[in-house]
Design brief:
By secondary structure, the chain is mostly helical. It contains 8 helices and no strands. α4 packs antiparallel against α5. The two termini are 26 Å apart. The relative contact order is 0.09.
């Protein structure tokens, strides 16, 4: 990483790396789901050549840095859903998905809005696979709480690293809201 134009090039490279890693995780997910080879490559190619990816990947606008963590969340949650459909509990996949989503949310704050909707999806998947309302609600709350706690923890660490006082909750709230 350097100065001036080198900084812009470094940001472009980091963004491109994030896009490549995210697409790689997406492709591995398709492999794990047993997607036929031709369909898997077609889906990956469509993702590679999507307008948003083509527009953002080669730029210094580093939103695609979040893509690997977001794809990891998708990876673990899809495998968790598949295992639930087969009658297995697979709580580890749900927890890993929540942790990955928390990391993604810490990377791109606007993902906080997705957490409650994904928690509702967890509720639906758990109910569809035979969990009681109480059990499904417990899984949804666990998922939402973990994702939110991980994201908030990263923000708190950022607040401390930027010189914020650990004992000042209002300062931390201003720090987080200022990051929006």
């Amino acid at each position: 990483f350097g100065r001036g134009d080198d900084v812009i090039r470094s940001m472009e490279q980091v963004n491109l790396l994030g896009a490549a890693l995210g697409l790689g995780i997406f492709h591995v997910l398709l492999c794990r789901l047993g997607t036929p080879l031709a369909t898997r490559w077609l889906a990956t190619a469509l993702a590679v050549f999507s307008f948003n990816l083509l527009a953002l990947a080669p730029t210094a606008h580093i939103k695609l840095v979040v893509l690997p963590a977001l794809m990891l969340a998708l990876y673990y949650l899809c495998l968790w859903e598949r295992r639930r459909a087969m009658g297995e509990e697979a709580l580890g996949g749900l927890i890993a998905g929540a942790l990955a989503l928390g990391l993604a949310t810490a990377t791109l704050l606007s993902l906080y809005a997705a957490v409650p909707f994904l928690a509702l999806a967890v509720l639906g998947v758990a109910r569809r696979s035979g969990a009681s309302w109480a059990g499904a609600l417990a899984r949804a709350i666990l998922f939402g709480a973990l994702a939110s706690l991980v994201a908030t923890g990263f923000f708190f660490i950022g607040h401390l690293a930027s010189g914020g006082a650990a004992t000042d909750p209002l300062g931390f709230a201003r720090y987080v809201l200022g990051a929006v």
